[in-house]
Amino acid sequence: MNIIYSILILFTTLLHSQLLNGGYDIGDIATDFSLENIDGNFVSLSDFKDAKGFIIVFTCNTCPYAVLYEDRIEALNKKYAPQGYPVIAIMPNNVETKPGDSMLSMQQRANDKEFTFPYLIDADQEIYPQYGATKTPHVFVLESTSRGPLVRYIGGIDDNYKDASLVKTRYVEEAIESLKNGYEIKQTKTKAIGCSIKL
């Protein structure tokens, strides 16, 4: 019985690893989702009829890196949502493993920080593997096209998680500005710095 259990655990681990090694690449079309927001409504990309693109951020309450980036994520939404590129935050962690990331905790955090963007829960942990997200925070910039949401940037928000005042390169902002002005994005991929997503 112990051998069967061990084999099952190994298979599950390998399957999860395979999912994480997959996910979207630059130029892929992202499929839509329907995830519960902190207000109880379900949110999809298709709800944003006039969006030129999206800043999808996988984040959470409990990761110190994610907490350090909260104000910067809010600033991105305030700057770019009016220009057609809203932030959509998705919490990917297993709440049994991380109770501090429960829906109630998400609601409290969003209220305390006065988030102006949707904060969704990937309750079945089905969406983050599709994207290939591995960290919190992990960002995917999408461009709205006739074929669907096109993945244009994957990675970190900027080059200094510790101190926003010391940031030299704002990866997400540079990607959005390039899209707005019809330029090629110079850095389409960077390393996401953060906590691993919890199973």
Largest sheet composition: 7 strands, mixed
User: How many E-type strands?
Assistant: 9
CATH class: Alpha Beta
Q: Please give the CATH architecture.
A: 3-Layer(aba) Sandwich
- Name the CATH superfamily assignment: Glutaredoxin
Order of helices and strands: HEEEHEHEHEEEHE
Strand content: 15-25%
Number of helices: 5
Whole-number total of structural domains = 1
Sequence stretches where pLDDT stays below 50 over 5 or more residues: 5-20
How far do the termini sit from each other? 24 Å
Q: Give helix % range.
A: 25-40%
The radius of gyration is: 17 Å
Overall form: globular
Sheet with the most strands: spatial strand order: 2-1-5-4-3-7-8
Summing up helix and strand content along with how strands pair, one would put the structural category as alpha+beta
Would you tell me the overall average pLDDT? 91
CATH fold name, please?
Glutaredoxin
